[in-house]
Design a protein that fits this description.
Elements lengths: L1 H14 L3 H38 L7 H10 L3 H13 L3 H25 L3 H25 L5 H24 L2 H28 L4
């Protein structure tokens, strides 16, 4: 819903030459999307051991690891979607298509090469993860070139994601995973609520 609301706003600012507002909208939305992705990953990582057997039966308990790995890939998905909307709004559809194609090639190459040496479903999940990371980096490079973001902001984002994931996995392994989720989730929600007014203020401009 938020992504659908932001896309026409991106187009509006780009067509009117309001690049400062375009950059501000994108960067505020990026933070919100990233926090949502982290919260979703934390929930799945903490509760997959309960949800998967409950939803599909005890025979699928072994799929828990695959589910956790799959959702690791989707940590980047919301911001990939956001950046794709921005790139298309800036009339660079060709670049978006090229990035999609390159991501697909990377994924397929990773699957074929990986499965040749290791017969495991994890290979496919890791290939998806690598292709998503590659896609995101290609988008970042283009948006840096267009002045929508900076190398510093990208490094901070990737570092934050990596620190969060490794820290969360370590904490859930050594402490109660539900308590860890409650603590981390509360922190993420608080950060989001503090930053949300800025995003909502920008969205209201769409109605004006």
């Amino acid at each position: 819903v938020v992504s659908a609301s932001l896309f026409p706003l991106f187009i509006k600012h780009f067509n009117s030459g309001e690049f400062g507002k375009l950059r501000s909208n994108y960067q505020n939305a990026f933070s919100g999307f990233l926090l949502f992705a982290m919260l979703s990953y934390a929930f799945v990582y903490s509760f997959a051991d309960v949800i998967v057997p409950f939803a599909f039966g005890d025979n699928y308990s072994s799929a828990v690891v695959c589910v956790k790995l799959m959702f690791l890939s989707f940590v980047l998905f919301p911001t990939i979607l956001l950046q794709a909307n921005l790139i298309i709004a800036m009339k660079m559809e060709r670049s978006d298509m090229i990035f999609n194609f390159m991501s697909l090639v990377i994924h397929l190459a990773g699957c074929f090469v990986g499965l040749y040496f290791i017969k495991s479903l994890d290979v496919i999940n890791y290939s998806v993860l690598i292709s998503f990371i590659s896609f995101h980096i290609l988008q970042d490079a283009l948006l840096i070139k267009k002045g929508m973001t900076s190398i510093k902001k990208c490094v901070i984002a990737y570092t934050g994601i990596a620190v969060f994931i490794f820290s969360y996995q370590y904490l859930t392994t050594n402490f109660n995973p539900y308590l860890v989720f409650l603590t981390a989730g509360s922190g993420i929600i608080i950060i989001y609520l503090l930053s949300a007014p800025k995003l909502l203020l920008h969205l209201k401009q769409l109605k004006n």
